[in-house]
Design goal:
With 293 residues, the protein is of the alpha/beta class. The chain is 53% helix and 13% strand. The protein has 14 helices and nine strands. The strands form two sheets. A six-stranded parallel beta sheet has the order 3-2-1-4-5-6, with helices on both faces. Strands 7-8-9 form a three-stranded mixed beta sheet. The radius of gyration is 20 Å and the shape is globular.
Length: 293
């Protein structure tokens, strides 16, 4: 049954690659396209069909998954390359990349104006969650469209319908605010423990299981201890979403004091050329601020 459903995955980077692989493994017929073809080619070994352009990838697909880097990339792929016209009538476009809520709503209007259906479904869980199929998927859109996509989502993780189009982006905004703020709290704690002569590895272990425990403490705290800043979630993307949160807060008369602090630290990290590092790399920034004070 699943083999009769063709899914196109546009964008096979850090997240799109393992997602496409899981969909193939779940029995879907999967077409993939990536701007850099070499990044998509290895998926052929798992049964995916690699297209040389996005139009070819979507032409026989009932469902199209977009993992674009940002709104500009989405506009380029869907409209300037006219991929939207190549999509089958009444096909469903699922944009799973992280975008600001107003950008998502604007994209949805443009897609539906071309007669295609649209839901926004950003994810949390990073590369590890994509590989293991444990993503948390936040879905905004019509309930019928969510129902059509839910079988596909089951291969990727757990999906929750949170409201109309744009609600997924709002939920991801909230998610990233918590992630960004918590990463900095973990970095502060581990940095202070080292400065005070405690063993940061032991401190990290001691905090697990208590009220301070979290996925961020466990996974990003371990990255900090290992000084492994290979990006699961690059700092530059975290800054983008924190800036979007700041903008939304201003428009809705909401005060976000922790976001202000987090934004400043990630801005400094990026200014120093560390924007492609994982967000856990912010611990280096905190260490340098302390050392220079």
């Amino acid at each position: 049954m699943l083999a009769s459903v063709t899914v196109a995955v546009l964008g096979t980077g850090i997240m799109g690659y393992p997602m496409a692989r899981r969909l193939c493994g779940a029995g879907f017929s999967v077409n993939v396209w990536n701007r850099t073809l070499e990044k998509a080619k290895p998926l052929e070994a798992y049964g995916c069909k690699v297209a040389h352009n996005p139009c070819r990838a979507v032409e026989d697909a009932q469902i199209v998954i977009g993992m674009m880097s940002d709104k500009s990339a989405a506009d380029l792929v869907y409209f300037k390359l006219d991929t939207i016209s190549a999509m089958s009538p009444d096909s469903l476009l699922i944009e799973m990349a992280t975008m600001a809520p107003d950008e998502t709503i604007e994209l949805a209007r443009a897609v539906t104006a071309h007669g295609k259906r649209f839901i926004d479904a950003p994810v949390s869980g990073g590369e590890k969650g994509a590989i293991e199929g444990n993503l948390n998927i936040m879905v905004g859109g019509a309930k019928d469209d969510f129902a059509d996509a839910n079988l596909l989502f089951a291969a990727l993780g757990h999906a929750t319908h949170v409201g109309p189009v744009g609600s997924g982006a709002v939920t991801k905004l909230c998610n990233q605010m918590i992630v960004g703020n918590t990463v900095i709290a973990v970095a502060e704690a581990l940095n202070l423990s080292r400065k005070m002569g405690a063993n940061p590895t032991a401190v990290h272990q001691a905090l697990r299981g208590g009220f301070a425990d979290s996925v961020i403490l466990r996974e990003h705290g371990q990255r900090m201890l290992n000084e492994n800043f290979t990006p699961g979630g690059p700092a530059k993307y975290m800054l983008d979403i924190l800036l979007a949160a700041e903008d939304v807060a201003k428009k809705n008369d909401t005060f976000l004091p922790l976001v202000q602090v987090s934004k400043q630290l990630f801005e400094t990290m990026i200014t120093k050329g560390r924007g492609d590092q994982d967000i856990s790399g912010v611990i280096s920034e905190l260490s340098e601020v302390k050392n220079n004070s």
